[in-house]
Amino acid sequence: MYRSRNSLVIFDADGTLIDAFCAIEAAFSRNGMDIGDQERFRKRRRLLKYLGGLREFPGNLRRQFGKQSRRQLIQTLTDVYRQETLLHPGLADLLKQLIGAPSVRVGIVTRNVTLEPAETMRQLLRRHDVDIDALDFTVCIPLREDKQKSFCAIRKMLGVNPALGFACGDEYSDYLAAVGAGLHPFIAAYGFENYRRLRDANVPEAVIAVTPQSLADRLSHALGLPLPGAQAEEHQPLWSATVGAISRSPRDSMTRWAATLPSRAAAIPD
Question: How far apart are CA 195 and CA 96, in angstroms?
């Protein structure tokens, strides 16, 4: 049914991998505008995110009015992304680990608004010693385009079973796109939308990561990989040793070990 037994990981860039708020804040400031504080930014609806709150809206609107002003703002944002902006802590290591994992296909789908966003991603990742050409795909789509279509196209192109697919984003729309494409969602509450906004949109608590480290830990665990930057444990977990002992029992001992299943099950931690 599926050509590949590999896992698939699709990352959103802005907010999920990249500390985009700091980039936007810097670009606005250098153009005489104010985006407001990060928590209020996360609470705004998408239409108003880049116009500021009630305090910042009038001045920002005046400065964004006109093609020349908007062009200058995008140019500044592009320069900030390429020269200064950082990945969230620990996520460069996570990307490198996934790139090096032979059974994982990993890449980025982004609606980044900088000039030539693919080149912006290349320069930003290069500063973190991540080679964009080592990714399996980098897809840049228009700001208003739904990601679900891209998710489905990538999964089909790589022949991956959707049960082995994961999509990491930071907005409710990312959650909907992942679920719509049949992928497992991991949603960051440290990016463009906060925890409360995600929960109010009925994103399940179980798929929300409140820190970059939490996202990295959850994804690594789901893929059966060591935690990024950590040494793999030398000993087997209790559940693995127990189940392994059961599966290795010879057929002529089936009655004997089957009788011990209740006690074995009791020994496996929840």
Answer: 27
Ordered DSSP codes for 55-102: TTHHHHHHHH-SHHHHHHHHHHHHHHHHHT--BPTTHHHHHHHHHH-T
Q: Which residue has the tokens 């949109």?
A: 201
| Sign of the torsion angle spanned by Cα atoms 127, 129, 131, 135 | negative
Contacts of 69 (CB under 8 A, 6+ apart): 31, 63
Residue whose entry in the numeric block shows the structure tokens 């500063």: 127
Question: pLDDT, tens digit, for every residue of 67-116?
Answer: 567 889 899 999 999 999 999 999 999 999 999 999 999 999 999 999 99
Interhelix angle for 212-223 vs 91-100, to 10°? Answer: 20
Q: Among the CATH numbers 3.10.150.10, 3.40.50.1000, 3.90.950.20, 3.10.180.10, which is that of 7-17+86-223? A: 3.40.50.1000
What global pTM score does this model have? 0.78
Instruction: State which amino acid sits at residue 151.
Output: F
Angle at 98 between CA 92 and CA 101, to 5 degrees: 145
Other C-beta atoms closer than 10 Å to the C-beta of 191 total: 27
Per-residue pLDDT reduced to its tens digit, 124-175: 999 999 999 999 999 999 988 999 999 999 999 999 999 999 999 999 999 9
What ranges do the domains of the chain cover? 7-17+86-223, 20-83, 238-267
Burial-class residue 255 by CB neighbours within 10 Å (0-12, 13-18, 19+): exposed
